[in-house]
Automatic annotation (TrEMBL), chain A:
This is Sorbitol ABC transporter membrane protein /mannitol ABC transporter membrane protein. Its main location: membrane. GO terms for cellular component: plasma membrane. It is a multi-pass membrane protein. The keyword Transmembrane helix applies. GO terms for biological process: transmembrane transport. Residues 69-278 form the ABC transmembrane type-1 domain. Signal peptide: none annotated. It comes from Poseidonocella sedimentorum. Belongs to the binding-protein-dependent transport system permease family.
From TrEMBL, chain B:
InterPro entries: AAA+_ATPase (IPR003593), ABC_transporter-like_ATP-bd (IPR003439), ABC_transporter-like_CS (IPR017871), ABC_transpr_MalK-like (IPR015855), ABC_transpr_MalK/UgpC-like (IPR047641), Mo/tungstate-bd_C_term_dom (IPR008995), NA-bd_OB-fold (IPR012340), P-loop_NTPase (IPR027417). Keywords: ATP-binding, Nucleotide-binding, Transport. This is Sorbitol ABC transporter ATP-binding protein /mannitol ABC transporter ATP-binding protein. Gene3D superfamilies: 2.40.50.100, Nucleic acid-binding proteins (2.40.50.140), P-loop containing nucleotide triphosphate hydrolases (3.40.50.300). GO terms for molecular function: ABC-type maltose transporter activity; ATP binding; ATP hydrolysis activity. One of its GO terms (cellular component) is maltose transport complex. Transmembrane segments: none annotated. The keyword Zinc does not apply. It comes from the Bacteria.
Length: 288, 334
């Protein structure tokens, strides 16, 4: 029974948690906003007073800004594309009855448990190194010039590394969705004269749309802020500087807290634009 | 056209032989019902005919042509599944259009057939709905509609009514029978409900453990069951099967007498017993009678109402003209 008394008691009891969460969110946000209007150079004079929107203007007009937004979107988009497509294919493959299914499934999920820093290092040194990497040996074995993965096609290489990490997640979610597909529907379609590819397009894919939306949503949230993979591999060079990485450089390498904070505010705005965009699609797909 | 012929067809799942060699001919335009207890291989047999399952050995002929290795879509058969198997993300119209779309039938012809099917099945008002927004009976009709528009050589139904409630089942049963009369297309219908089998079939195939026990018209099966299994399976309530001294009086191993072929009297008769449970249906009364010489209680039918109480003494007289005799192997003795 929700009497006036018990309700106010409930509010009182919940208050610590709510205040903690609010503080957790609000303090960094307000500090970011606060610093973004300041000229604050910790090693070059510290707090040099208010500057209005100066930081915002400088951040956007810097030649690094648009390329960084572009790099962010390419990494997020590319990874989503690869993980969703291969996730669906792997999910279908793993759903087939085969020998050693249990072991194979665990192996497929394994990359998800490797820390981003570690996996990026492994990829950088063991696979993509132009001299000693496995890929280099492979290329040499067929008589080709080894590719300088991380400098020549740095964005693609990073997309590859990040996709490797996120593919298990996509596969797992999509596999469970595939398993929930009623096999009689596929058989009905088979009898209705739909060959394999059409069965996939008309029955399986629509059935997966909800799971795909969820994969896209969750991955986007995490991919917008990837950092370790870039830090460890290219250090932001060769056009692989994302918005997150640019902010990091402004704050820690240039020691310009104000400018970095302004960048942080832009990142929040970008994330929200993407989120609104996604929520529209998700909302539509989750309703159906 | 839709004559289906199975020749020495077998099916094994790994080491388990579900269907031992089986021969069966289903005539063009016939309404054939596969009936049998759960797990006897009815669905498997239907799926073999449909091509959804590969046969282990033997030959399937459709209209005389060898169809053993023909893929399901090319056999010209349409199937209605127990779960309906409608495509949930498509409207009713798109569901019905799907097989025609796959076959590349022109749009206006598609629409003509959809309208015709929708009118025949009372679906006109629901064409733009999704399957999720339909009742069980409506979904069933959509599934049938999707099968009709293909104009198949034969329809295959796998327990299509088992998800419906009793009243709806009776209604749909009639609709399917009517559909068969109108289209005159071969239909194979799987059920484990012997009332459905009796009321709908031109020909009943009784299966047990993958073996055909008897094939015949409903009345043939009712009048002259070939063995004890068919005798007990066809007819409701079940035939009373009696063995022991009473059967030996007739010189056989087992005798069978249907509940409706036993005269009941409160004064005199062949067998004496006490009334157990009495089921009053209004039109009939079914009495369960315990006779001292039989281990199992007998079921007997009295027309209309029969005024007896639990524990009353009662006399039963089997009609000798309707007494079924079976030998030790369970086979009928003519
Ligand atoms: N894919 C399969 N693998 C192994 N055994 C199977 C498979 N499908 C069916 N069986 C077996 O084959 C036998 C017949 O199954 P089937 O589904 O044809 O029975 P049914 O007569 O349709 O029963 P019900 O009335 O319960 O639907 C069963 O014993 C079942 O266990
Ligand atoms: Mg079955």
């Amino acid at each position: 029974m929700a009497t006036q008394h018990s309700r106010s008691a409930a509010r009182f009891m919940m208050a610590p948690a709510v205040i903690l969460l609010l503080g957790w969110m609000l303090v960094p946000l307000i500090m970011t906003l606060y610093f973004s209007f300041k000229r604050y150079l910790p090693l070059r004079g510290g707090d040099l007073g208010w500057t209005g929107f100066d930081n915002y203007v400088r951040f956007v007009t810097s030649s690094a800004f648009w390329p960084s937004v572009q790099a962010t979107l390419i990494i997020v988009g590319g990874t989503l594309l690869i993980t969703v497509i291969f996730g669906v294919l792997l999910g279908i493959l793993l759903n087939q009855p085969m020998w050693g299914q249990g072991v194979v499934r665990i192996l497929v999920i394994a990359p998800f448990f490797v820390m981003p820093t570690v996996s990026a290092l492994v990829w950088k040194n063991m696979f993509m190194d132009p001299v000693n990497g496995l890929f280099a040996h492979l290329w040499k074995a067929v008589g080709a010039q080894p590719i300088e993965w991380l400098s020549d096609i740095s964005l693609f290489s990073i997309v590859l590394i990040v996709s490797w990490q996120w593919l298990p997640f996509a596969t797992l979610i999509l596999l469970t969705a595939i398993q929930s597909l009623d096999s009689e529907q596929l058989e009905a379609a088979e009898m209705d004269g739909a060959p394999v590819l059409k069965r996939f397009a008309y029955i399986t894919l629509p059935h997966l749309s909800r799971a795909i939306t969820i994969v896209i949503l969750i991955e986007t949230i995490f991919l917008l802020s990837i950092f370790a993979e870039i830090f460890v591999t290219t250090g932001g060079a060769f056009g692989s500087r994302t918005l997150t990485y640019l902010i990091f450089q402004r704050v820690l390498e240039s020691q310009n807290v104000g400018l970095g904070s302004a960048g942080g505010v832009y990142a929040i705005i970008l994330a929200n634009i993407v989120a609104i965009f996604l929520m529209r699609i998700v909302g539509k797909n989750l309703d159906a | 056209m839709g004559q289906i012929k199975l020749e020495q067809v077998t099916k094994s799942f790994g080491p388990v032989e579900v269907i031992p060699p089986l021969d069966l001919t289903i005539g063009d335009g016939e309404f054939t019902v596969f009936v049998g207890p759960s797990g006897c291989g009815k669905s498997t047999l239907l799926r073999l005919i449909a091509g959804l399952e590969d046969i282990t050995s033997g030959t399937i002929r459709i209209d005389g042509q060898d169809a053993t290795n023909v893929p399901p879509a090319k056999r010209g058969l349409a199937m209605v599944f127990q779960s309906y198997a409608l495509y949930p993300h498509m409207s009713v119209r798109k569901n019905i259009a799907f097989p025609m779309r796959m076959a590349g039938i022109p749009e206006d012809e598609q629409n003509r057939r959809i309208e015709a099917a929708a009118t025949a099945l009372n679906l006109t008002d629901y064409l733009e709905r999704r399957p999720g927004q339909l009742s069980g009976g409506q979904r069933q009709r959509v599934a049938i509609g999707r099968a009709i528009v293909r104009e198949p050589a034969a329809f295959l139904f796998d327990e299509p009514l088992s998800n419906l409630d009793a009243a709806l089942r009776v209604g749909m049963r009639l609709e399917i029978s009517e559909l068969h009369k109108r289209l005159a297309t071969t239909m194979i219908y799987v059920t484990h409900d012997q009332v459905e089998a009796m009321t709908m079939a031109d020909k009943i195939v009784v299966l047990q453990a993958g073996v055909i026990e008897q094939v015949g018209s409903p009345l043939e099966l009712y009048r002259a069951p070939r063995n004890v299994f068919v005798a007990g399976f066809i007819g409701s309530p079940k035939m009373n099967l009696l063995s022991g001294p009473e059967a030996e009086k007739h010189g056989v191993h087992t005798i069978g007498i249907r509940p409706e072929h036993t005269a009941i009297s409160t004064e005199s008769g062949t067998w004496e017993g006490t009334v157990g449970v009495a089921e009053h249906l209004g039109s009939d009364t079914f009495l369960h009678v315990q006779c001292p010489q039989f281990a199992e209680p007998l079921t007997v039918r009295a027309s209309g109402e029969f005024p007896v109480q639990y524990g009353d003494r009662i006399f039963l007289t089997p009609d000798p003209a309707h007494l079924h005799r079976f030998d030790a192997a369970g086979l009928r003795i003519a």
